[in-house]
Amino acid sequence: MKAVSLIVAAAIALVAGTSVIHWQTKAETLRGLLIRENGLILNQVQYRLEDKLTNLTQGWLNPGAERRQRVDELESDSLEAQRWAIRCAWVNAGALALAAVVGLCLASAIRRKVFAGVSLYCWLLGVLLPVLTITVQTKVPHIGQITLREETKSLLLLVQRLWAEQNMLLVGLIGIFGIAVPLLKTTCQLLPDSAEYAHRFGGFLAKWALVDVVVVGVIVAFLGGRGDAETHAEIRLGLWFFAASGFMSVVASAFASCITGDTFGRKSGNHDLPDLAD
Q1: How is the chain split into domains, by residue range?
Q2: Which of 14, 122, 165, 215 is the 20 to 30 Å CA partner of 91?
Q3: How many CA atoms within 13 Å lie on the side-chain side of 156?
Q4: Chain mean position to CA 119
């Protein structure tokens, strides 16, 4: 029964995760078309003037009607796709919570692998999905709100951009210590109990995994942008999955430490250590 529940939870999480990526990609594509439709700053000024003329004439003069209809459709479709992505993310979270609960009822060695697998899965979604959206706007007198820049970044795209800009220090901090090291550590936790050196290496890597630093950095950027009247920041789904990956990895490391300590204690003749295996 436990194995069946675990398989069902994994299947639901896989389908929901694929759906999250699909709907989020669709939402970002539609958002990109919307930004392209709004055009440059001069185009936005022209559109605002057209809107004011339409309002002043109560629709008698209606320049840009087709453009407004396209913009409304794109914005509506983008919001709908984003809502579906959030719904699928909640289903995903429920399936992962079920897998974690079932994992707690299994033997210690399997329990560690379950939490490590959940951590790896959350890491994948956290890297692929957007983590933060920054929008810079300004208010022009008699014109209205003008968008100067809008960027939505995932951790993977952020590292690629830093690499293109030759900012190797941040590439090392985020790419190596924030992404690669947590991935390698989680992979070590998925290995069999007989791979003692791999588990020791994973425990060593745990000291260098800076998932918490990346999460705190994104939250600081969010709070900083939120406090500026001209800058708006929005936390996206990727950050929550990335934070969940770090938490699940810590739990898996705790189980790995218990099992490793128990194994080494038996080899050294110390029988005072508790036996956590079911």
Answers
A1: 1-105, 128-278
A2: 215
A3: 9
A4: 12
